[in-house]
Write a structure and sequence with these properties.
Layout (H helix, E strand, L loop, with lengths): L24 E5 L3 H12 L4 E5 L2 H13 L6 E5 L7 H10 L6 E5 L6 H8 L3 E4 L4 H17 L1
Parallel strand pairs: 1-2, 1-3, 3-4, 4-5
């Protein structure tokens, strides 16, 4: 595998996403039930363990609980626009609390500057909705592999 850093999808290995299995824990922080179900099914078909949180507050609590249980998440998919606590705020809190794993921002707003704003909040990378399934899986498997390498 090429030497890739946690600095954006362009550094990730190019592979067919479903040829690799994800054997890690992924937290999906998303407020839309249909997207929750879609992501849950898609990620579970690759072997990932998936936990769903309905907003940023639930996401932060899920990460805190996973750390306390010594079963931390390997990756977080973070919707940006949510009620109660948005993804920007949740990401900033998680980074301040010491979460060092990849956080991939998911947003329906594909406006210029969104990627920069997501990265500035502490996200590792960014995907636009509607989500390209192959790109999502490639991104997730790539970041999880990099995280495990240390």
């Amino acid at each position: 595998m090429e030497d890739a850093r946690l600095n954006g999808a362009e550094g990730l290995p190019r592979e067919k996403p479903l040829e690799r299995q994800m054997n890690g824990r992924i937290l999906v922080v998303e407020d839309t039930p249909d997207i929750q179900r879609l992501l849950d099914l898609l990620l579970r078909t690759t072997g990932a363990e998936v936990v769903i949180a309905g907003n940023g507050t639930e996401g932060v609590r899920a990460v805190e609980a996973s750390v306390a249980a010594k079963r931390p998440f390997d990756l977080i998919l973070m919707d940006i626009q949510m009620p109660e606590m948005d993804g920007y705020t949740a990401t900033k809190i998680l980074r301040k609390q010491g979460f060092r794993g990849p956080i991939i921002a998911l947003t329906a707003y594909a406006m210029e500057g969104d990627r920069v704003r997501c990265l500035a909040a502490g996200c590792t990378d960014y995907l636009e909705k509607p989500i390209d399934h192959a790109r999502l899986l490639t991104m997730c498997t790539g970041y999880m592999a990099i995280t495990r390498q240390g």
